[in-house]
Amino acid sequence: MHQRSEAKARRAAAKLPVSLFDTSDLPSPERFVAWRESIGVFLEVGLVRPGDEERYDAWAESYLIDDLMLSRCAASATKFDRRPLRVAHDSIDHYMIQVLVDGTIDMALGRHALSFPTGQVILFDLADVMDTVNSSFDLVSVIVPRRRLAPLLARPDSLNGAAVDPESATGRLVATYLLSLYQSAPQLSAAEASAAATALVELIALAFNGVGRPGGDATGGDLPEALAKAELLRVQGFIKAHLVAPDLGPDMIAAALGVSRARLYRLFAPIGGIAEYIREQRLRRCLTDLVSAKQAHRQVAEIAYAWGFSDPTHFARAFKQRFGRTPSEVRRAATPLARRDRPSLDPRVGDRLHEDWLAGLG
């Protein structure tokens, strides 16, 4: 790989913080284990076929650009997952945007099966589940804190698996800019990197505000629809800030925001209804508390009540339906996840700075 052969020289010349991970100096059977341990900071990593570890290879070159993490990454065929327990435990609430330089990605998203060819520009929401299979791949990615990108997005919570047409004007702009930014990263000063990061975030928002729901139709872009999206975002923000309120519901929201109940029902109809949205947000908060070591002293019923569930039986049924396990099962299974005593990587693979950056972004 040409880029790989240049990575050490680029790192030596870089003005920005840089991290380099490379398995080439490890014996073949050890390469996948090292890669799984490193990427395991936010994704579950698996082999696509038994025996692939004998031929596995991976490398990644990452830069901290303002508060974004920009990476060039290539690896053998890999399965990547991000399950509800991991989402709740690590609190990594970022977007990951990838330009697929080479290879393909297949993604399971609810009832939809999505396939992304070479050249595709894809957004993954790390606050949501992820279920993908990558062929041997080469990609450039950027991880953006949610607080920085979400305010610019029309549908900040509905873009997991969204892709920009690489032949569209905005698709070409994002892909070209990301690749160019990676190439230029070693020469950028901190001030230049900050300006470049701002431009990139705005360009990503421009591109993904023009795509449809993953697996669905395009959204269009007329003014009434844009206003409705902005209004929906405002209501969603209010709901998230008042989940502990026992009377949270259409009446309370309508009175607080000056929106009619009928308007609220219309706004939330495309995403399953306002009651379902409130329940989903409360279930996510309960999941976070159930896997948190800091909340281990609290009873399951206490956590449920704190987030608005007054009936323990109803809560347990809703929780299992959503996450596939009872609250007690989730709490027991979460114990190993709470430990951060991961063994050190073999120094032959380089450093693990990218892991610390990912945990600290935003």
Proportion of residues in extended strands: 15-25%
Relative helix content: 40-55%
- Which class of the largest domain in CATH terms? Mainly Beta
Largest sheet entry: 7 strands, antiparallel
For the termini, the CA-CA separation is: 32 Å
Write out the CATH superfamily name of the largest domain: Jelly Rolls
Total number of helices: 14
β-strand number:
12
Chain-wise SSE layout:
Blueprint: H1 2-13, E1 18-22, H2 28-39, E2 44-47, E3 58-65, E4 68-75, E5 78-82, H3 84-90, E6 94-102, E7 105-109, E8 112-116, E9 121-125, E10 130-134, E11 137-145, H4 146-149, E12 162-164, H5 169-184, H6 190-208, H7 223-241, H8 250-257, H9 261-268, H10 274-290, H11 300-306, H12 312-323, H13 327-334, H14 353-360
Antiparallel strand pairs: 1-3, 2-5, 3-4, 4-11, 5-10, 6-9, 6-11, 7-8, 7-10, 9-12
Could you please describe the fold and organization of this structure?
It is a single chain. The protein is an alpha+beta fold and 362 residues long. It has two domains: 2-217, Jelly Rolls (Sandwich); 223-338, Arc Repressor Mutant, subunit A. The chain contains 14 helices and twelve strands. It has helices spanning 2-13, 28-39, 84-90, 146-149, 169-184, 190-208, 223-241, 250-257, 261-268, 274-290, 300-306, 312-323, 327-334, 353-360, and strands at residues 18-22, 44-47, 58-65, 68-75, 78-82, 94-102, 105-109, 112-116, 121-125, 130-134, 137-145, 162-164. The chain has a seven-stranded antiparallel sheet with strand order 1-3-4-11-6-9-12, sandwiched between helices. Strands 2-5-10-7-8 form a five-stranded antiparallel sheet. β7 and β8 (112-116) form a beta hairpin. The longest helix has 19 residues, at 190-208. Mean pLDDT is 86; it is low at 217-223 and 336-343. InterPro entries: AraC-bd_2 (IPR035418), AraC_XylS_family_regulators (IPR050204), Homeodomain-like_sf (IPR009057), HTH_AraC (IPR018060), Tscrpt_reg_AraC-type_HTH (IPR020449). Keywords: DNA-binding, Transcription, Transcription regulation. Pfam families: AraC_binding_2, HTH_18. Residues 233-333 form the HTH araC/xylS-type domain.
